Amino acid sequence: xxxxxxxxxxxxxxxxxxxxxxxxxxxxxxxxxxxxxxxxxxxxxxxxxxxxxxxxxxxxxxxxxxxxxxxxx
Length: 73
Hints:
Helix content is 16%, strand content 48%. The protein is built from one helix and four strands. It has one helix spanning 58-69, and strands spanning 6-17, 23-31, 37-43, 50-56. The protein has a four-stranded antiparallel beta sheet with strand order 1-2-3-4. Strand 2 (23-31) and strand 3 (37-43) form a beta hairpin.
């Protein structure tokens, strides 16, 4: 399996933290040298390991924001 390369260009915020120190974060990340996208996933301390997540373009992030703003929560 090929190695996945990433560069966290901007840490936008932490949403939560588990008892083991993993954090759910929203970041701007470049994957394998491509254009950076918004990324929501769990990270181990120091970003040495990651969980599964979702990567969104700016258009997708804006649509998600619109959907969340229209929710009754």
